[in-house]
Amino acid sequence: MALLDTVRAERLAKIVLLKEAGMDAYPARTERTHTVEQFLENHDTIEANDEQVMLAGRVMSMREHGGSLFVDVFDGTKGQCFLQRDKLGEQVFDLFVNTVDTGDIVEFSGMAFKTKRGMPSLSVTGWRMLAKALRPLPDEWFGIKDEDERFRKRYLDILLTKELSDRIKRRSKFWNVIRSYLLDREFIEVETPALETTTGGAEARPFETHHNALDMSVYLRISVGELWQKRLMVAGLPKTFEIGRVFRNEGMSAEHAQDYTAMEFYEAFKEYEAGMEMITDLYRTIADTVYGTRVFSIKGFEIDLDKEWEVYDFCELLKKEYGLDPLDNDADWAKALVEKGVSFEQNADMGRLVDTAWKQIRKTLGGPGFLINVPVYMEPLAKKSAKDPRVVERFQVVLAGSENGKGFSELNDPVDQAERFMRQGELRAAGDEEAQMPDAEFVEALEYGMPPAFGFGVSERLFDFFEDVSVREGQIFPLMRPR
Length: 483
Known about the structure:
By secondary structure, the protein is of the alpha+beta class. It has 17 helices and 18 strands. Helix 7 (154-160) packs across helix 8 and helix 8 packs antiparallel against helix 10 (272-291). It is elongated and about 90 Å long.
């Protein structure tokens, strides 16, 4: 019999002992009066008032001391309980010793006291099993070392790794800071469809599934409702945002996942230059509130969000590095990439080649900064620049060699939008699965009139960068291939 099977059999036998003693191994209710954190924060007052306390949590360790037991209990905060045979009574004490293992979730009743070393503790007068663990926990000090096993048993990794548990709390705070920032500025939070007949708002390969009731193919969305939120501006709602999941059927990397959380907002009567000021303030607010600093070490870059942000000109950077102008339709970008030793997709159009060239430059830029003056052919949803109609009014947030947010003056000219969708359709017909799908119904909505507007989107990659971890490490439960 395998070791795990032996342990499970022993623990199942302990459930029988509990039942024979009249104790349910999995009761529905607990009489807990305090969390461990509340108990520790108010320990002196509880002790002074001789207050009866009920704590509940997972047994993380047990140490015998002269016929007594010190038990570490964890409910998100770790506390100490002290069990004495003479206080509990021999039968109750022995039942604990004979049936409780590390990993079990137990309720303890007792009185507050301090040990000889001054540690706030609970002197136990009674206990009750709340959930008997049938599998042993990994060693608390060494945790799970195998990365694949850590991701598969993420719940154990979180339980045993305080930094990971703290990261999840920061992740929640990260998104709620963004939410509060927008709500304080009179944006309304909306929910838009996750299932679409036409994907829009980004260039990505979608997941496709079948809608049985309507007997048709649908796609999981690839943006956080961009074209839907713009419809809401047509509808007279000038400030909207959504935080939700996005799905892209693409490759995996340290910065890319197939499903992840992102946020997009849209504000009428605003343009991208004013948007830069807002985003600078938003990122600094996130840094201040979640981390208490504006200085970060990310992927080998030292980043200071407090300094004046750089402004990078897309065309000038590419001309300097490759000697070619992205606005020159006759430029041979394939040859330039070959000369630089940069791999690229065969039969890629000019937009893909230029984007590949840009990404090599981006890796060298620490930021924080804004990338501007991207050619029209690379952005089907942004307004053309009034200064140079060959480029769009769009910026990317450049941070530690990567894109960490994108905003632009939204295209609201229905004729121009229809023409750009047509071009995207041609790219799809030529085999580009990431090109955007034409959306005639969205163009129809624009024909009713959409005000000029600024839109912005950012994904959980920004959180991962602040944490300086991969996207898989930053996610709570990353997708795993079944064994």
